[in-house]
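step: validate -> pass
step: tokenize input -> pass
step: predict -> running
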Amino acid sequence: MPTPARAEIARHLERYREWERRMLAAPDDPAARDGFENEGQILRTLMGKRCAREAAQAAERRLRAADLAPTPRTAPARTVPKTPERPRATVPQHPATPRTKAAGRTTTTPRRGTRTPSGPTRHGEPAPAGTP
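step: predict -> pass
step: emit ->
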């Protein structure tokens, strides 16, 4: 599952904390409780957690980790040392030979199941002459 964008996580975490403050300030207000629960549901879905508090903690951890991670602009350039090239082994080339069976006999027919019948055949009718 792809992870949500850092900005989206930050926006929903901020809204969750705002609704939390409103609900704690007025616990009897049904609009504040509904907003808090709705934002908690969104945050749980984004972070893949079972409760809103775990989702908020996971969001904070992810944002903290993103702040500490080096960005392409600030990351030091890493150089990979070149390894000396080894000479490649040459494979002997064999002339094309016809396909043979295990006993050494040359086959002239294609593999089983690739042959097409030489006329229309229907279920239950005998195969045309010359087919095995």
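step: describe -> DSSP finds three helices and no strands in the chain.
step: cleanup -> pass
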